[in-house]
Amino acid sequence: MVGHGCQHARSIIQSMPSFSQAQKAEALLALHHGPKILVLPNAWDCASARLVERAGFPAIATSSAAIASSLGFADGQNIPRQEMLAVVKRIAACVELPVTADLEAGYGNIMETARELAAAGAVGLNLEDIESGQPDLVDIPAQVEKIKTLRSASETMGIRIFINARTDVYLAQIGDPSSRFDRACERLKAYAEAGADCLFIPGIKDEALIRAFVEALKFPVNVLAVAGSPSIPRLQELGVARVSLGSGVARATLGLVDRILAELKQTGSYDAMTAGALPYAEVNALF
Predict the structure, then answer these.
(1) Stretch 219-245: mean pLDDT, rounded?
(2) In this structure, what is the dihedral angle of CA atoms 133, 135, 140, 146, given to the nearest 10 degrees?
(3) Which of 3, 36, 88, 107 lies at a CB distance of 3.0 to 4.6 Å from 81, suitable for a disulfide?
(4) What is the pTM assigned to this prediction?
């Protein structure tokens, strides 16, 4: 399956207007092993997910930060698991594509999280190695056990949940800068051995560093696109398998709302709101 790559994954999606959750999981796995980088602009509600699908992307990822803020929670595992997965369930129900959910550090009981993820209709998740409010990363053995539990749970359920194992060494700037590469590699190699499918390293954008991780890990690598990141074509040249936008699209949308409100208050005009707005009928037709 893996060797078939993106072409096989897209053929599954295109040939089956309503395909099973297990087939969606198979397609998501294949998308990480094809000749073309997997680009995931993260969604946070049904409308944003439908726009991602309509734009022709082959899978949907969610943003935990964007979902949390839309429901009135600060990012960092403050949102209850049930509320996060309720949104994931709504998103999965309104698109045909595979959905992978950002579930932060797993929300406690990882076996229960796996069951609820599958019940929500998603087929993958991000799992980070830092707990909310903690100054350091979760011990490697404890994180490895989480990944093994997820893999075991997915086998039991008959759905191969895609595990995108994340380390926050760089994003949280943990430890001496000179030791971060080795520390991140140690953790990520352990996660891969435990059963992860992809290794996520947010916080890196230097081309040499990205290439060094790709060469050292010899495993699908996910990076987070931020200001100053290499372009998608360049990331593909560097060997990156997957690029995510995280909460970037949602924050850009909030930035537009902020500009609309500022213009409305300062000048009483509506240009920021009307320029580029999707027509009402077009938005309504998404559903």
Answers:
(1) 98
(2) 0
(3) 107
(4) 0.92
On whether the CB atoms of residues 50 and 286 are closer than 8 A, the answer is yes
Residues 6+ apart with CB under 8 A from 154: 114, 118, 160, 161
Q: Which of 4, 22, 26, 28 is nearest to 222 (CA)?
A: 28
Task: Assess contact for 3 and 21: CB atoms under 8 A.
Answer: no
Task: Give yes or no for a contact between 70 and 251, defined as CB atoms under 8 angstroms apart.
Answer: no
Nearest Cα to 202, choosing from 224, 229, 234? 224
pLDDT of 246-256, one tens digit each? 999 999 999 99
What residues have CB less than 8 Å from 110, skipping those under 6 apart?
146, 149, 150, 153
DSSP code, position 230: P
Q: What is the DSSP letter of 279?
A: P
> 103: how many CB neighbours lie within 10 A of its CB?
27
Burial class (CB in 10 A: 0-12, 13-18, 19+), 176: exposed
Count Cα atoms within 13 angstroms, Cβ side, for 100: 31
List, in sequence order, every beta strand (DSSP E) within the chain. 38-40, 60-61, 99-102, 124-128, 162-166, 198-200, 221-224, 242-244
Note every long-range contact of 223-226, with CB atoms under 8 Å and residues 24 or more positions apart, other chains counting: 224/171, 224/200
